[in-house]
Design brief:
- Among the domains are: 92 residues, Fumarase/aspartase (N-terminal domain) (Fumarase C, Chain B, domain 1); 208 residues, Fumarase/aspartase (Central domain) (Fumarase C, Chain A, domain 2, Up-down Bundle).
- Helix content is 60%, strand content 5%.
- It is built from 17 helices and 6 strands.
- The protein has a two-stranded antiparallel ribbon.
- The longest helix has 37 residues.
């Protein structure tokens, strides 16, 4: 089958196979968004006089039909069809004749794939933001439920000071707020319309780029047509960094869980059905879920660097190198969502050990508390520090496990409500509902 860009010469089969690579599989991620972009584009073309009202109606109806097939899982690329753009145009031409051929007026495959990727990334960032919010809520609930359950705190993996499960869960919840802030930044960069930049140098047609921006629910547009093309690679890299930050939080949490579950710690417990065993050691309960989360997330953390290296030294304009970015980035969204879902399942069923710090092995965790008591009684800090240190060396150290921490973010004042308000502020700034409503409107006949 000839290609949309092909003239009279035949391309080598080996070259064709190599240059297409895995792109057809990656186009499955973009199919629905390609149709959305085409609906907006043809709507604009009709409004500027490049399509008649009748032609626009025919095209929109046919495009919505294709969109519904995609949503129902009934859409696929025909053998020999190069990409999603070619498949959609072929289907339109088969059903509408010459009208279908008009869909490509005033655009290039370059800006077509750009808008597809922007729409895909935006939708995936919205989906990830929902998963982050759900996980955040769970961590906050656990933080409040276990705010009075003390836990050893460590520095250098050595016993340091008393902590609590409330502080521990709450720390990861607040970490997700910063991760969401980075996600929001990526969303802001992604939520700009490149359509109309054509091959990267604009068009002599009297197109209305603001109109397609409005129709697709973008916040604004990439104004400079050269930068619209240069933005490919950057949008992916920034998005990958946002994913990597969330992955870093999950990876660190997973490492904590693996330690805390270890028999030498024994801080937490999971039901047998959520752990795995050993083929020869009957006592084993392995944290395989968290080990895999840790590894998946560490791999996601490598994504920004992979994309950075793949786009290193590229000049402005489009280059085929950019095609490969999809293979690295697109599957990461599903992987990260799966990791959050599994972490949620595990934490929902996590049991914490009560009264951990009553064990004398943790007595020196309270050394700072005893120093502070002396200071509050009027003794200079350096003298109090020395006295408690000498008591420890002489075996005369006495302590109490009763503590009263009151400042913001401490054992006795977790600031759960304030952290939740910060998260909501970040999420609200994304105006996700506005985008979803606009896409629904676009799909109405």
């Amino acid at each position: 089958m000839s290609k949309l860009w092909q003239k009279n010469s035949k391309v080598s089969e080996a070259v064709e196979k190599f240059t297409i690579g895995n792109d057809q599989a990656m186009d499955a991620y973009l199919a629905a968004y390609d149709v959305l972009g085409s609906i907006a584009h043809t709507t604009m073309l009709s409004e500027v006089g490049l399509l008649t009202a009748v032609e626009h109606t025919q095209l929109k109806k046919a495009l919505i039909d294709i969109y519904q097939k995609i949503q129902a899982g009934e859409f696929k690329l025909n053998p020999g069809v190069e990409d999603i753009h070619s498949q959609v145009e072929m289907m339109l031409t088969e059903s509408l004749g010459d009208v279908g051929k008009k869909i490509h007026s005033a655009r290039s495959r370059n800006d077509q794939v750009l808008v597809d990727i922007k729409l895909f990334l935006r939708a995936e960032l919205i989906s990830i933001s929902g998963a982050v919010q759900n996980f955040f809520t769970l961590l906050q609930e656990k933080s409040e439920a276990h705010k009075n359950d003390l836990l050893p705190g460590y520095t250098h993996l050595q016993l340091a000071m008393p902590s609590s499960f409330g502080l521990w869960f709450g720390a990861y919840a607040e970490s997700l707020v910063d991760d969401m802030t980075m996600l929001q930044a990526a969303y802001t960069i992604v939520n700009k319309n490149p359509l109309g930049s054509a091959a990267g140098y604009g068009s002599s047609f009297p197109i209305n780029r603001r109109r397609t921006t409005e129709l697709l629910g973008f916040e604004t547009l990439n104004y400079n047509v050269v930068y619209a093309q240069m933005g490919r690679g950057k949008a992916e890299r920034v998005t990958a960094m946002a994913l990597a930050n969330i992955a870093d939080t999950l990876s660190k949490l997973s490492m904590d869980v693996c330690l805390f579950m270890n028999q030498n710690f024994g801080f937490i417990h999971f039901p047998d059905e959520l752990t795995t065993g050993s083929s020869i050691m009957p006592h084993k309960k392995n944290p395989d879920v968290f080990e895999l989360i840790r590894s998946y997330c560490n791999r996601i953390k490598a994504l920004p660097n992979e994309i950075m290296m793949m786009t290193t030294n590229l000049p402005s304009g489009y280059h085929r190198d950019l095609q490969l970015l999809k293979e690295h980035l697109f599957p990461a969204f599903t992987q990260l969502r799966n990791c959050m879902e599994m972490a949620s399942l595990m934490i929902q069923n996590m049991e914490v050990k009560k009264d951990l710090l009553e064990d004398p092995r943790y007595q020196y965790l309270f050394s700072v508390e005893e120093v502070n008591k002396l200071v509050l009684g009027g003794m200079p800090f350096r003298d109090a520090y020395k006295k408690v240190g000498l008591d420890i060396e002489a075996g005369n150290f006495t302590y109490s496990t009763q503590m009263k921490h009151t400042h913001e973010g401490s054992l006795g004042n977790l600031c759960t409500t304030q952290i939740a308000a910060t998260m909501q502020k970040v999420v609200a700034s994304m105006e996700i509902v506005k985008v979803e409503q606009q896409i629904k409107q676009l799909l109405k006949l």
